[in-house]
Amino acid sequence: MQAKNIMAEYESILLVKSEVFVYKIPPRTTNRGYRANEWNLDTPHWTGRMRIVSKGNTCIIKLEDKTSGQLFAQAPIEQYPGIAVESVSDSSRYFVLRIQDDNGKEGRNAFIGIGFADRSDSFDLNVALQDHFKWVQKEQQNEKDKDVPKPGLNLGFKEGETIKINMKITKKDGGESSRSKAKGNAGGGLGILPPPPGGVKLAPPPNASREPTPTSSPTHQAHPPPPKPVVDQSNTDWVQF
Q1: What are phi and psi of 96, to 5 degrees?
Q2: Distance between terminal CA atoms of the chain?
Q3: Rounded distance, CA 39 to CA 88, Å?
Q4: What is the pLDDT of residues 132-170, one digit of tens each?
Q5: pTM of the entire structure?
Q6: Cα–Cα dist 53/61, whole Å
């Protein structure tokens, strides 16, 4: 709060113009806008410098003497565009100011005309006032946002909401687990191929080269005939022919 009060007392200069002309203007009797060609532009009532300063949200246009800096008149600006600063209908270099005395008493105000020799000076006046009140509007919105309670952040799952996480398990040595490897091989990776349908043919033993190689190898070989019984020639009485 103390820092905010210090900022409110600090005066900031928004714009300085070294030459501005002040004119006495006739009272407005109709609703039509002011016209600068009715002010006797060749004979200004006063010539000096203009400073636009801000103090917190308040903006003031000050007309001062070029040499001494003595205040000639000041115009507090509550909003822009507004009645405190009005453009004329026939030129972009002239404006009407509602000035007040130093004490700022109610009812002690008057309307004067001001003008610039260069159109760029009037453009700078418009920009300075617009930028100031844009800043005021932003600050007021920030103050309103502070008073509005904000809902807490809810990170819980809603009803029926699920989440899917893909995890890759690794061993301490940096290799993948057997499940990951098996899954990778099933998906088209390099693995052990199955044996051929005919079985595995082994090479023949070393002594097989001495025997003649048959021209064809039948699938099934006939069993050899049983050996003939040995007949004892010494006793053949029991043999029947």
Answers
A1: -115, 125
A2: 142
A3: 11
A4: 999 988 888 877 777 666 666 677 777 777 777 887 777
A5: 0.57
A6: 7
The two tokens of residue 216 are 């064809």
Is residue 96 a contact partner of residue 43, using CB atoms and an 8 Å limit?
Answer: no
Q: Quick one: pLDDT band at residue 15, thresholds 50, 70, 90?
A: very high
- List alpha helices for 87-218, DSSP H: 119-147, 178-186
Question: How many alpha carbons lie under 13 Å from residue 176 in its C-beta half-sphere?
Answer: 10
170: three-class secondary structure by DSSP: strand
At 1, list the tokens.
């709060």
Please choose, from the candidates 43, 37, 53, 133, the residue with its C-alpha nearest in 3D space to the C-alpha of residue 93.
Answer: 37
Q: What is the pLDDT of residues 95-144, one digit of tens each?
A: 999 998 765 555 578 999 999 999 999 999 999 999 999 998 888 887 77
- Residue in the structure block whose two tokens are 């009005």: 86
Q: What is the 3-state secondary structure (H, E, C) of 15-48?
A: EEEEEEEEEECCCCCCCCCCCHHHCCCCCCCEEE
Q: Domains of the chain by range and CATH?
A: 2-144 (2.30.29.30)
Q: 140-160 burial, b if ≥16 CB within 10 A, otherwise e?
A: eeeeeeeeeeeeeeeeeeeee
Q: Which of 53, 106, 59, 56 is nearest to 80 (CA)?
A: 59
**Count of beta carbons in the 10 Å neighbourhood of residue 46:** 15
Instruction: Please tell me the predicted confidence (pLDDT) of residue 101.
Output: 78
Structure tokens at 230: 């040995």
